[in-house]
Amino acid sequence: MTETPLRPARIVAAFGRSYLADTGEGPPRPCVARGKRSEVVCGDQVLLRLGQDPAVIETLLPRRNALWRQDAWRSKMFAANLDLVLVVTAAEPTPNLELVGRALIAAQSEDIPSALVLNKHELPGTARLREMLQPLQSAGYPIIEVSARQAPDEAAAILRQKLDGRIGMLIGASGVGKSTLVNALVPGLRIQTQAISAALNAGRHTTTATRLYMLEGLAPGSGLLDSPGFQAFGLNQLSVSQLQHAFPEIARLNGTCRFNNCTHRQEPGCAVRTAVEAGELAPS
């Protein structure tokens, strides 16, 4: 029997071993991975065998990058092939700078451009938050100020411009307005989410499924990846050298320390420690 040809596709929803894949023709197709274990994640490029229902993922194509999420026990890959990470923060509730830092480190370690989205900029505590974020801005991370609640259309327009021609992800702690921004960017989000849940045949349990929404009215390939319930980026998979590369201000000093294997802790002739002592580099 002749096998059906393979079709390139992008994974746009992932829940367990069940997936939806966009082939560029018609609605996304339900598909499964071969074997008991699957390393396929949302955003992956794959080759599908369409002659079965559900379709079968035959080949996982090479990734440009990947992000990991952290739970109490381990780090787990959850997204791939991103062009932009937007880290949302706000003056209220109390800013979670640890999440902000881990998000930026995770993106930088995979060479994914990233920026900070300062939401609720009308709040009185925003001036203080700007001061707290200044070292990150000085390190090269742009800050985009919006108000998702007071001016949702303006906020969506600003972020759509950043996402034009890109696959991006919004990440933020609970209460910073990330969900409001996602809803502003993806009209009919609830209807799309229900359709994905039905296609995956997983009902309400897909509330934490990672999804990729393609954005209409922008350049082809523009999309927003959303991972509800996301709490922390996984960094355990990174080596010491990868972690150092993830800090742009430290990476710029690579090769200028006296010792090539300098850990920037207590070695003599450390360019990083010298920069900190001179006030040229923030200590944390």
Protein described:
With 284 residues, the protein is of the alpha/beta class. It has 3 domains: 55 residues, OB fold (Dihydrolipoamide Acetyltransferase, E2P); 161 residues, P-loop containing nucleotide triphosphate hydrolases (Rossmann fold, 3-Layer(aba) Sandwich), CATH 3.40.50; 38 residues, no CATH class. Helices cover 26% and strands 26% of the residues. The protein contains 8 helices and 13 strands. It has a 5-stranded mixed barrel with strand order 1-2-3-5-4. A two-stranded antiparallel sheet has the order 6-7. A hairpin with a 2-residue loop joins strand 1 and strand 2. The longest helix is centred in the middle third of the chain and has 13 residues. It is globular, with a radius of gyration of 21 Å. It starts with 5 loop residues before the first strand and ends in a 7-residue tail after the last helix. The relative contact order is 0.15. About 2% of the residues have low confidence.
